[in-house]
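From the shared-data thread, chain only:
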Amino acid sequence: MIDSTAMTSQKGLNNSNPTSEHAERISRMSSQQRASIDRKAGLELFRDMTLGRRFEDKCAEMYYRGKMFGFVHLYNGQEAVSSGVIGAMQRKHDWFCSTYRDHVHALSAGVPAKEVMSELFGKETGCSKGRGGSMHLFSKEHHLLGGYAFIGEGIPVALGSAFTSRYKRDALNENSDSVTAAFFGDGTCNNGQFFECLNMAQLWKLPIIFVVENNKWAIGMAHDRATSDPEIWRKADAFGMKGEEVNGMDVLAVRGAAERAIKRARAGEGPTVLECLTYRFRGHSLADPDELRAEEEKEFWAKRDPLKTFEKDLSEQSLVSTDELRMIEKEIDKEVNDAVEFALAAEEPNPNDLTKYIWAND
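Structure, as tokens:
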């Protein structure tokens, strides 16, 4: 016999994440030094965040219309992390390693929307030539080291990238100061790769930023039910590493923390664990009915929408007019629609090229 009381209790545990805990951590972060920006940087950040949001919304539309297939994990709500970290780095100089929630990281790294959308449609014009799909975006040109379907896969890859930078400088006497950002979620931080790579990164003082996108949920598992210490940034201390928590719904707070971490990395002072407290507005994937999260929790985070927060910042600093922002949104909508049309019209991969990208060419 199934105990209905036990079932109710179990669901209650999944919904036990009180808004008071969220508010406490965010208030503690309110005194952090946020990045200072000028008009140009403000426009770039707003455009990047808007592109990420509108692109993901269009992906959802295409998926539900039956135009896109496979597993699709969207990034809505987390845009401040991608734009804040990658925007503080140097495109085509630094390196980026993503997860299965990788569309927006690719866009922030500079991969054209047409190439990303084409990949989601499995077309030859995709950044992975239609072989990777949603979870395996890759672009050598844009220093995107890939998206990965299994959690924790990308962290050792990012570590190798950071080691390469240090090796070029120390062993080959090259002028190498590139930094690698490894993005991953809170659920990954209980995996062995996370701790092993933290140890090696600190041992060799590697130029890497471990960017934890703590969106509070690992699929349907509430974060604080799965770890002995829910404040992930504190785990850096076990390795003598710098750790910092940041309001991941505030792009200027993220950018400020990223700038500090990048400065340390380029100076040879080693890695940083950067825990960004954020929230995904949609379910784990587009196949997730999203029934486990409490409405109160969703409402708490919806009021902290990173795009609305940043628009308020721009307005209060008199950097950009509201009309300019609306114009940017229209330009982004056209760019995303053009990307869809391009992807739909693009060629399918040639079956004769099935093994073309499996082995390296001499």
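Residues 35-108+149-343 form a domain with the Rossmann fold fold (CATH 3.40.50.970).
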